[in-house]
Description:
The chain has two helices and 16 strands. It is mainly β. It is globular.
Amino acid sequence: MLSANKGIKGVIFALLLVTEVxxxxxxxYHEGEVLYYRAAYRAKxxxxxxxxxVTVSTRLDTLNGxxxxxxxxxxxTLPFFRWFFDMNDTYHIWVDKESLxxxxxxxxxxxxxxxxxxxxxxxxxxxxxxxxxxxRQDTPREKTMVLTERSMDAVSLYFNLRSVDxxxxxxxxxxxxxxxxEDTIRQLRYxxxxxxxxxxxxxxKFDTMKFACTLGSSEEFSFTDGTQFFIWITNDENxxxxxxxxPVRVGEVRCYLHKYEGLHYPLVSRIK
Length: 272
């Protein structure tokens, strides 16, 4: 069960990793939208066990005197499992309302006795990002790295996928992205598998677009021991990730949509 909880944690934040870098004119942040997810473990002889929850919300805010979108993602172990593995991870990003470029990223991770904090400050004019991170009470680490047009943090990667033009994809064609993660740049490799009808617990069936993704393990861009997962995006104007699945040593971890509020478009992909 310990490995299942560790796997659930990985999938919860895999939810914030996937994207296609598209033009900044594509709208993807919607004030008042709140998405709720459940994370569960399943295996051949084990039923679907929900052990975690994720909430992703968007609101307007002000940063350095400018109006921005503030996106908050929180992952929490469900109460019944907190005696065994108590996780409470929170991520924030601030996105310029005009350019839709991320200005700042923060995370605060609490998992049992383990703590980790980090923040990134972006300078898109100089094409640099300055990162600060601290594990437990260790000495903080700071680093400045070069940005490219395809560089993003985990949360903004998640939102960029929602602006993708499906017509730009060919089934099986691979794409690469750069992800700012702590003090490294890691590559995300993904490809579009094709359309798929997927069943989500309690919500029913959805018409979706399915992607396969692999997160490289280091700055050397090795995918041999990277994290692999699949993601299903609603085939409508909302482009909500309704499900993720990641294989673990025994079984599979899934993260799926539980409920939603404040959607900008009708959820026409939902088939009741």
